[in-house]
Amino acid sequence: MGNPALSFVAIELLTGLATAAVLFLVSCGLSLIFGVTRIVNFAHGSFYMLGAYIAYSLVSRAGGPVGFWGGLLLASAAVGLIGVAMEVFVLRRLYGGPELFPLLATFGVVLVVEDAVLAIWGPQDLLGPRAPGLKGAIEVFGHRFPSYELFLIALGVGVAGGLWLLVHRTRWGTLVRAATQDWEMVGALGVRQATLFTGVFFVGAFLAGLGGAVQLPLEAADHQMDLSIIIEAFVVVVVGGMGSIAGAFLASVIIGELQTFGILVFPKLTLVLIFVVMAVVLVIRPQGLLGRPQPEAGMNRAVEVGTGAGFQVPAVLLYTLCALVLAVPLVSGNYGRVVLTEVATLSLFAASLYFMMGPGGLVSFGHAAYFGLGAYGVALLVAKLGWGMAAALAAAGVLAGVGALVFGWFCVRLSGVYFAMLTLAFAQMVWAAAVQWDALTGGDNGVLGVWPAPWAGNKLVFCYLALGLCGGCVALLRRVLRAPFGYTLRAGRDSALRCDAIGIDVRRHQWLAFSLAGLFAGISGGLYALSKGGVFPTVMSVSRSIDAIVMVLLGGLETMAGSPVGAAVFTGLREQIGSLTDYWRAVVGAIIIALVIAFPRGIVGFIGARAARLAQGGR
Amino acid sequence: MSLLTVNGLAKSFGAVAALNGVSFELGEGEILALIGPNGAGKTTCLNILGGQLRPERGSIRLNGRELVGLPARRLCRLGVGRTFQIAAVFGSMTVRENVQMALIAGRRRVLGLWRPAGALYVEEAIELLERVGMADQAERLCGLLAYGDLKRVELAIALANWPVVLLMDEPTAGMAPEERRALMRLSAEIARERRMGILFTEHDMDVVFAHADRIIVLDRGEIIAEGAPSRVRQDARVREVYLGQVAGAA
User: How far is CA B131 from CA B83, B158, B166, B181, in A?
Assistant: First the structure.
């Protein structure tokens, strides 16, 4: 290797492989768990984070090579047991239910773990000691390359080989492969599903914990590492093929190298780049590079939809409630008005998600993208171009609608978990653009100075403006759901086969619904930016998308009236609990878990079911 | 006069030839049964005719117009109606709304954003439901109906846009014997009233011989007999591959 350019590329390739090795440790477990249990484990990133933090505590107490390597292994084993606990106490109650509920429950676990880590280890980043015996560098192609990274590459290959042996040469592995291909059949053969699932969770969590632990000498453990790794691991698993370990290996290498070389070529676009790869793979080969085609998961199985047995919120109740809400700003102080304004904007946001999620059966994990497009649209138009408030709001709706039109075209080609993943990927792309394109968006500093028109500057006036606009939009959405458009959307969810046979183009209809939902989310986002006086990338973070799902589920999927109720309860709880404790996220996490386990029909659905039962004769 | 002309249909799954050069005709008001042992290619044939599958070779002409390659939602506009082996209806809607949905789709009003759908085509929907004997249950949710009733709702949906050919895959599967006869009697009556052709597959030989005007017998993807029920009943090959099994089992 005399050529300096070539040897530089070779060194970068090695660096990429070291990145890929850690990515593989995390994503192979994720893939294994999905293959066997059909659960998309959002908490896998939390396992990774816990691995790093627990390893830090163990390694920094016990010194020496034994302390170091033993600490890493012990930490991984501890994380494996945490994974088992999650499977036994939370997920086991959800098997056989709607396929997205376990995904939500694991997101609840993510939030709980985030706050637990904050409580135990504190807010500061923690850098572990360097590995004994591997502190130096080795000469490779005339460059010095850290020996620890070479060790990581070897570890990745070793784990891949070990996993291959485990899956292909043991009885347990035979069961795992059988379950990955046909899990119902394995159940029919008399294998105890619970034991197999628990074992798979142990292995998966152990490997994720190991990934976090071995990362410790390279990068400090911090509080964002769970979400950043899980999103990358999702991309790897989707690109490689859900359930395929070889696919996870291949995709880890692709993504690892893409990140390493991406930084050199497009330093601003690395995040966008990997999501583009994922989106392209999902559209061209939805099952992933080495995945098998999944049997079509019925779209209506994505979420629990009750029969809605004729349940309607009585009109009298609805109008009384509206009148009461309208009276609040008059008597409350400015604090109350600000909270109510937020409830109004989030109600519209939740209602726009309900529009596609309830009647459409399209559960988006990236609805915040359109909220964020609206928010940034208004912010940039008002603060940088000096547009008027009304024009900016309208333009924000159009911008978000067009965004949804473009992304939605890809998304509606998939269903169920794959649809959820692709919506998430697009949302992360938009989010990454907001973070990295700082010339336009101000990066993490956001856009400030976004204030409403002078006549609406008063908190009281703005509160009524938000209530009026959002109330009007929600009413409009409700009207559309009762019109042929909404009926057709429901029809597509109930039976795509029948729709096709009576001349309905289901995909096109879902695409339009997706876009309409995006448009209204954009309006709510625009209002939100005006009410806060600025925007930051957090307006379109993953957790905002999940917040919206939680609001919709709180309200229930059976009636549109539920979503504003869900938004109000959610915001109210956050205000109340947020003033009592710093651990608001853990509370939200607990609410999510409780919701999917105990109240899958939401508050309004629950009350409605009770009311219907009373009406039937007071049983 | 021939309504539907099928010529040389072929389809294979891997190395297995599910259909191998199937040709037949269906006339106005005619009720044609497609029978054969399991794996003979009946459902494949119906799925090709209904646009759910694409054949490798062959043509399907409806009143002279080529149908091969068109998706199901286009076929419906050209007059092909369809019922499925497992009734496909909209479970979260009432019986009446199901039929209204079919009418809305047929009149291309699915993009309507304003007028409530529940008020559209009510009379026509009720009329159709009366025809299939479901008017008294019009306000019940489809998700809560007995299976036999569901099949009748599906029939009303399929009839809503006046198909000229109705494809029925195992129309009486999963029903009690009395219900089976009633459903087929009803379908036959409507076919004659409307001059609509029906092509159906069926396992129940009593239903086939009681209602079909003509029978086609498939075996391993090829037609081995065709004709009036009395002729098919006497056919030696049919008895061997098909009725022989029934006689043997009985």
Answer: 17, 13, 16, 16
Which residues of chain A have a CB within 8 Å of the CB of B93?
Answer: 487, 490-491, 494
Question: Beta-carbon neighbour count of residue B5 at 10 Å?
Answer: 15
Q: Do A502 and B110 touch (CB under 8 A)?
A: no
Give the residue extent of every domain in chain A.
4-225, 333-541
A140 φ, ψ (degrees, to nearest 5): -130, 125
> Domain limits of chain B?
1-79+163-250, 89-161
Q: Which of residues 95-154 of B touch A (CB under 8 A)?
A: 97, 100-102, 104-106, 108-118, 120, 141, 143-144, 154
Series of mean pLDDT values for 10-residue runs along chain B (250 residues) = 90 88 94 90 92 93 93 93 93 95 96 94 96 95 90 96 94 87 92 95 89 93 92 85 53
Instruction: Give the one of B51, B113, B144 whose C-beta lies nearest to A485's C-beta.
Output: B113
Three-state SS across B168-222? Answer: EECCCCCCCHHHHHHHHHHHHHHHHHHCCEEEEECCCHHHHHHHCCEEEEEECCE
| CATH hierarchy code of domain B1-79+163-250 | 3.40.50.300
Asked whether the beta carbons of residue B120 and residue A494 sit closer than 8 angstroms, the reply is: no
What confidence tens digit (pLDDT) does each residue in A529-566 have? 999 999 999 999 988 998 999 899 888 887 888 899 99
How far apart CA A106 and CA A112 sit, in angstroms, is 10
Distance to chain A for B51, nearest Cα, Å:
9
Task: Tally the residues of chain A.
Answer: 619
CA dihedral A82, A83, A85, A91 (to 10 degrees): 150
Quick check: B79 contacting A, CB < 8 Å? Answer: no
ipTM, interface predicted TM-score of the complex: 0.93
Q: What angle do CA A228, A230, A235 make, to 5 degrees?
A: 100
CB B76 to CB A502 under 8 A?
yes
